[in-house]
Amino acid sequence: MSEYDHEPVRGLPGELPPGEAILWQGEPEWRTLVTSALHVRLVALYFAALLVWSLATGARTTAGTLAVSAVLVLGLAALFLWGVHRTTVYTLTNKRIVLRIGVALNKCINIPLSEIESADLKPLGGGKGSIVLHLKGMPRLGYLMLWPHARSLRIFRPQPILRAIPDAAAVAKQLFDAVRQVQPIVQADNTASGPALEGYPA
Questions:
Q1: How many CA atoms lie within 13 A of 103 on its CB side?
Q2: Phi, psi dihedral angles at 72 (to 5 degrees)
Q3: CB 74 within 8 Å of CB 42
């Protein structure tokens, strides 16, 4: 039994109200999440540079310590991101986006489609990608509450992000179409007035 067995609908805090329907649900793809979140590659390069420097200067004991530290740090990062993958569900309905997140403390964050000012699709290769959401005037979400489902280093005005999702372009198109039903929008060529959804296919 898991802490999510009580969910009336997977990924949602309650039953859908009349008139609301799920358009898409998904979760981060673990391998892509590992390579794209927490700057794991930069951390690995940092340890590799220190290791090479230690070996070049003859500090073999330091090199051994660095190697063990690298394995521990990268292993813990991968384990944490595996937990993120297992506990995260992103849901797009015709009214809102719901982020069910939290490895240790689960929570659901509701973002009305009418509060999306713009969005960016960030391709990550292999059809996978992340969608960054820029919000309007809804109460600001705490960075720590969202992390790691928040754009890096945007602490004072956090931007939610759907990380490492498969078939990201198709999901972005679904989001584009859903938002278009609730507010005026503008595509990247600025041919209409309203909030921009940049990077989405027409």
A1: 13
A2: -65, -50
A3: no
